[in-house]
Amino acid sequence: MKIVIAGAGAMGSRFAIMLKRGGNDVTLIDGWPAHIEAIREHGLRANLNGEEIAVPFSIYSQNEIPTTVQADLILVFTKAMQLDQMMQTIKPMIGEQTKVLCLLNGIGHEDTIEKYVSTDKIFLGNTIWTADLIGPGNVRLFGDGSVELQNIEPGKEEDARQLAAVLADAGLNASYSENIRYSIYRKACVNGTLNGLCSILNVNIAQFGQTSTARAMVQTIVEEFAAVATHESVELDVSEVVHHIEETYDPEGIGMHYPSMYQDLINNHRKTEIDYINGAISRKGRKYQVPTPYCDFLTQMIHAKEDILAAE
Ligand code: NAD
């Protein structure tokens, strides 16, 4: 399959390497000049579960998008706030048959993608694979993961199953989901609590879990997500989701980790995806007339922190 990875950062690189090793024709699009240069010179280098590899790729910047390559599948892997610009950039690679798969964290990305591709070609998913970009053209890919995905338009189930099969054949442990919107909301609840709160409180997940107010804050935020989700026909099981979040506090599991937003914002002074997590709940809350004071406040606090740290 002819696959374009739109945003070849940490996650885009993981999927690119696995899909190419799985026999697909993979092209990369990215906007970081040093990254492009390194990949052109040495291939995309990766430490894949301890094995050092270098995989050659065709890679283009947004200023040199080829008009001759029309993708069967575009896999978008920018940060959420970069998605619109990326979709605009890759318009020449979108043909009649091109499908777009979005595995970004956060809520509501279909609204952005719909501006460029009809809904019968859009597929949404969730992934628990991880990846770290450690320098230009160089990624660290450890551990296992999975992907679940679904069509957003009824009647396109077979296309979604076929896409899942392409990813599964490449070792990405992908499956068709009967209710991807539930999974997306459930994962957004994890990000919508731990990401922002650990970043503001300057703690890892286990330390956050030990605070006397963790339960109350998590419960209230998940209730806000659930109240909004109901208006989109997603009925979150609040106590299950809270329990799922609390399971992450275990120091023997991922408790000692700092969430990705912490690493982006506090360590690297990068802007965050808050507007597509808690911020999305605030926007949808206004639309559905559901009060979301905790999500509103957390979004403002993270933006204030971005300002203080001059995040870019
Ligand atoms: P990243 O910042 O490493 O990669 C994004 C890439 O997109 C960068 O290389 C950037 O140069 C490129 N890019 C952005 N806008 C562009 C544009 N207009 N033109 C060209 N290139 C552009 O981000 P990531 O960590 O790979 O995360 C991608 C998404 O996956 C996010 O939604 C994140 O929350 C989600 N996610 C990440 C992980 C992880 O372990 N890193 C795990 C699960 C989900």
Automatic annotation (TrEMBL):
Catalyzes the NADPH-dependent reduction of ketopantoate into pantoic acid. It catalyses: (R)-pantoate + NADP(+) = 2-dehydropantoate + NADPH + H(+). Residues 3-152 form the Ketopantoate reductase N-terminal domain. Residues 179-306 form the Ketopantoate reductase C-terminal domain. The lineage of its organism: Bacteria, Bacillati, Bacillota, Bacilli, Lactobacillales. This is 2-dehydropantoate 2-reductase. InterPro entries: 6-PGluconate_DH-like_C_sf, 6PGD_dom2, ApbA, Ketopantoate_reductase, KPA_reductase, KPR_N, NAD(P)-bd_dom_sf. Its EC number is 1.1.1.169.
